[in-house]
Amino acid sequence: MRKVLTILSLLAAAASAAAERKPFTVIEASIPEMQKAMREKRVSSRELVQQYLTRIAFYDRKLHATISVNPNALKEAEELDRERARGRLRGPLHGIPIALKDIIHTTNMPTTGGALAFDGFVPPYEATLTKNLREAGAVIIAKTSLTELANWVAGPPTPMPTNYNAISGFGMNPYDPRRDPREAADGRAALFPGGSSSGIGTASNLWAANVGTETSGSILTPSNALMLVGIKPTVGRVSRYGVIPITADQDTAGPMAKTVTDAAIMLGALEGRSPDPNDPATRTCMPPPGRNYTRFLKRDGLKGARIGIPRISFYDRLNPEQAKVMSDAIDVLVKQGAVVVDPADIPSVVDPDPDKNINQWNICSGAGNAKGSDANCSVVLKYGLKRDFNRWLATLGPSAPVKTLTELRQWNLKHEKAGAIKYGQSNLDNSDEMDVEMDRARYEADRAKDIALAATHGIDEVMKANRLDALLFPGSNGAAIAAKPGYPTVIVPFAMVPNAPFPPFPEAFDAKPGPFGVSFTGMACSEPRLIELGYAFEQATKGRVSPPLP
Fold first, then answer.
1. Pick the catalytic residue: 196, 223, 431, 526?
2. Which position among 44, 45, 101, 519 bears the catalytic label?
3. What tens digit of pLDDT does each residue of 301-315 get?
């Protein structure tokens, strides 16, 4: 018996030694797994960066995930390795490679917004969130592709396609990285890659996680399309200083990652230790002690939670496959001990009075909503861009390629043949028509109506009436209504559904399925509770699968 035990012990020791010798791979590795491997000296930050750079070199020609790559990433990683060797750890992201949407200022890489006018432009100061990430130990490895200027360039009738910009072209979805084969297509992706914050590189393991920004769907939509966890924070939770704006009323940055744990770690690193004097909205929410959101990662987080199902306008528009996914998701909630309130329809969605119905109140976008044709839509975004974009340009000093929104539009027209405005610039035109002083009363009235319909008579009313912890939305379908009052959402990967657009693909084209997630939305500053719910759902389902890249 002793001999058998000895042999078993030797075999176990050999297996352990073999495991230690096995090279560490970044593919699907979480931030805690990377940190553990660095602590155990199985990998260094430099080696993590090198693996990711190799993957970027191999895949980016096909995926167009990046606009620029940090030329000093390896040197920065080496310095962080030396700090670790001396016993100094900056924070929870020490040595972890992170990418930023290319509207977030960095002073060691250009910040372009994907606009030709800003190609190669390096701003004179870093975004507050960039500083926060560096203080937490992150290596900013790259700037991601995006829909140009966060998708406020061209609206109807020729809207800019998602994840297109004049510098890097079309971003592709790694779950089917082919171009649309239909006759009318122009090189865009066959499988929708999501909104203006590209998560392509995170989904494809080109870096550990990325920071996106959202005005109305640009974190949640790509997270849904790329099987990522996205946290769209309460507006003000993360400083916007040094981020190219659409409107301060709705803009926010937030994390996109492969797991709820990684996204929670990222959120804590993005949030400042104290309010940012450059962004008054950062006083809106109190951070948890130590900005540690991992304390809310509870497997039983759904037990006893009250979750509302807003059927009308959100579930009733799903195709059969999507409806089946959401039915399965609700079953998971019940099995995990949640109290499901079904239906929990949003009052402003079902209100028969057109003045109190949010579906009758759209965003003024595109050529059809120019001045004089914008009486029945909200001017908040087009007014906000005129006000906030010019303010942002003023912070850039003499190095700014253009000094006003008007100059940008004129530059684009002069460089139209070079591809500056392939789809036009109707949204920029609409914004530039606004007069910040003369149109302020109209803007304030529309902003008040946005809040009344989306929050007071919307999310607030249904949540308070039913004592809800969250609303459960299919995919990113709830992004627009939550965006208006700046409310938070956590989206979690769950399933795959067929890619069946209309008009359909040619019969010979074997379309691959695309990801589909579920979103937990709450009222202002409810991120801790939403993280609990999202983590419990993730642990009960483990829905994420990595893209089938060779």
1. 196
2. 101
3. 999 999 999 999 999
**What's the whole-model pTM score?**
0.95
pLDDT tens digits, residue range 266-293? 999 999 999 999 999 999 999 999 999 9
Is 197 noted as a catalytic residue in this protein?
A: no
| DSSP per residue, 305-368 | -EEE--IIIIITT--HHHHHHHHHHHHHHHHTT-EEES----HHHH-SSGGG-GGG-EE--SGG
Distance, in Å, from the CA atom of 480 to the CA atom of 484, rounded to the nearest integer, reads 7
45, 197, 218, 239: the active-site residue: 218
Helical residues (DSSP H) of 470-526, grouped into ranges: 479-483
Q: What is the pLDDT of residues 67-88, one digit of tens each?
A: 999 999 999 999 999 999 999 9
198 is a catalytic site residue: no
For 31-361+446-541, CATH gives 3.90.1300.10
CA distance 363 to 66: 30
Helices (H), 207-254: 220-225
**Residue 101 appears among annotated catalytic residues:** yes
Strands 306-308 and 470-474: parallel
Domain ranges for the chain, please list them. 31-361+446-541, 362-445
